Amino acid sequence: MRDRYPGRTWADVAGRDGDLPEVLVQQSNPPQDLRDIAFARYTDQQFFDSEMERMWKRVWQFACRDEHLAEIGDYVVHDIGRFSVLITRSPDGLKGYYNSCLHRGTKLKPSGATGWSPDITCPFHNWQWNLDGTLKAIPCDFEFPQLDRAKACLPEVRVESWNGMIFVNFDRDAPPLLDYLEVLPDHFANWDLTGWYVATHVRKHLPGNWKLAMEAFMEAYHTPYVHPEMTRTVGDQNMQHDIFSDHVSRDLCAMASPSPTVTNPPSEQELLDSMLVADSALVGERARVPEGKTARWVMAEQLRNQMRARHGLDYSTHSVPEMIDSLKYHLFPNLLVYPAPGLCLIQQFRPDGHDRDRAIFDQYVLHPKPRDGDFEVASVEVIREDETFASVASMDAFLASVLDQDTDIMRLQREGMYASGKGAETLSIYQEARIRHLHDTLDKYLEGAK
């Protein structure tokens, strides 16, 4: 493995408590062109417009979870820039339509809308379509003798689902979703998220380009300086970074393991007593670390027991890192998925309208579905750019604090890009390799190679 933090690696930490599954043993971080990345890729309107036309219209992008569209008639609106898709569950399955009336172009449903409806009705002149997209009714029908009713169906956008997540694609000629996912289905073969649901959904408007916003979550080089309180309990600069293919990369970060920057690391018992990351409601009260064991092992055992007792879920074959670590997979262009039960998240970053300088950040916290099937999918809680995650009562306090630290610095980065006399960023060879890879894949779309 080339040029990475010296000393104990994530693999060293993860392997202390037993064998790892093959998907976590794999390492892949191929050589790259170490060029600088121009700030114009974040700040230039023409570059942004090219992204919208040549990339966003051709990629599979996460829109919602299966539980958002559980019943026939449920719908969700997914927006990306000025594009908008109305996704619904029809009697024939999932359907996606351009969110625009065939009469005068009015949006059929407002941006970000969710709900239930027996049909699709334009709010302007009441044109109606069935859930399968066929025309249902037109007021003053006699006024449109030129209209071929059989052909007046809502134009469709492709919709497919995988592992409880629903994706859309504007490109009718794009490869199937499973092909686009590349190695993800194999890696997630033992990480089933279909039995989970969205317990918390927070959306924040951010002061920066969508790539700038997301890239803060693709490296931990900044952690000792932006999140110093995390360094005693979270491995950061010794994380493992893997690049598997054009669309898939990941980072693996050890929980209950100190940063390599810590000069006086805590004991295993101190780690367990002070562990701040993971859902404490799932893990339960802290115990003593048995002789010869680690804080990580204790946390994983407690979580296995809680999952079995509360939800009837058997994680006995899952390794310690599969239970508690941050196993963060990036799917190009804008999705991060964390499958470990102790930190099960989905994060998504996208342009905020047609503004290259602002982004929308969605965070979904997933919990196991109760055994009795009685659960309520969380409604989205929207916070403005000047509001904090800490102000959201439903959020874990520590996680909210970390997200506030991440997002507070984004305005400085955006403003610094415009103020720069250099005009480009210099990325590290390993810890920031996946950021460079993001731009490599983006170029393939912009140049027509994908």
From TrEMBL:
GO terms for molecular function: dioxygenase activity. SUPFAM superfamilies: Bet v1-like, ISP domain. Gene3D superfamilies: Naphthalene 1,2-dioxygenase Alpha Subunit, Chain A, domain 1 (3.90.380.10), Rieske [2Fe-2S] iron-sulphur domain (2.102.10.10). Keywords: 2Fe-2S, Dioxygenase, Iron, Iron-sulfur, Metal-binding, Oxidoreductase. Its cofactor is Fe cation. Residues 60-168 form the Rieske domain. It holds the Pfam family Ring_hydroxyl_A. It comes from the Bacteria. PROSITE patterns: RIESKE. PANTHER family: CHOLINE MONOOXYGENASE, CHLOROPLASTIC. This is Aromatic ring-hydroxylating dioxygenase subunit alpha. It comes from Novosphingobium jiangmenense.
